[in-house]
Amino acid sequence: MISEEVRANITRAGVSAPIASNIMFQMDKIGPLEAATYQGADPHFTYKVFTTLLPMNNPQLVLFRDHMVDQVVVDAISGDPRTFLIVSDPEMHTMDGHWQWTATRYRGK
Q1: d(CA 57, CA 44)
Q2: What angle do CA 15, 48, 58 make, to 5 degrees?
Q3: Domains of the chain
Q4: Which residues contact 38 (CB under 8 A, 6 or more apart)?
Q5: Residue 37 gets which letter from DSSP?
Q6: I need a surface site. Which of 23, 44, 60, 87 has the fewest CB within 10 A?
Q7: Please, are residues 17 and 78 in contact by the beta-carbon 8 Å criterion?
Q8: Exposure letters 96-108 (e unless 16+ CB within 10 A, then b)
């Protein structure tokens, strides 16, 4: 499994300010069998995302269909920051203080 660390903002359609800013995420690529469960998601651009840097007081802080916008890496095709769409229901795990979800990277948007 290939893993990458990404610094990103979380944004939501219709909300002007980011939900969270400059958060570090660990992103692990998923395999093709698991990607198939996300209705055609491309396994080369689908990731399991983990972070311990979001608050644990609001289980609705991050939602399905929110976006992660990379603050460092620019998409080579579009010239815009890489953007990831959250395609699962984000889970907050208070016992060990982490959040996790699945996201797919837009390509050439």
Answers
A1: 33
A2: 45
A3: 3-105 (2.40.10.270)
A4: 46, 87, 88, 102, 104
A5: T
A6: 60
A7: no
A8: eebbbbbbbbeee
Residue 45 parent element (H or E): none
- The pTM assigned to this predicted structure is 0.90
Residue 22 to residue 70: CA distance in whole angstroms: 9
CA 63 vs. chain centroid, Å, equals 10
Give pLDDT tens digits for 2-57. Answer: 789 999 999 999 999 999 999 999 999 987 777 777 666 677 788 999 999 999 99
4 has which bridge partners?
Answer: 27
Helix, strand, coil fractions of the chain, as percent rounded to 5 = 5, 45, 45
Please answer whether residues 58 and 41 qualify as being in contact, where contact means their C-beta atoms are separated by less than 8 angstroms: no
Question: What tokens appear for 89 in the block?
Answer: 């229901």
Q: Which of 84, 88, 89, 90 minimizes the C-alpha distance to 104?
A: 84
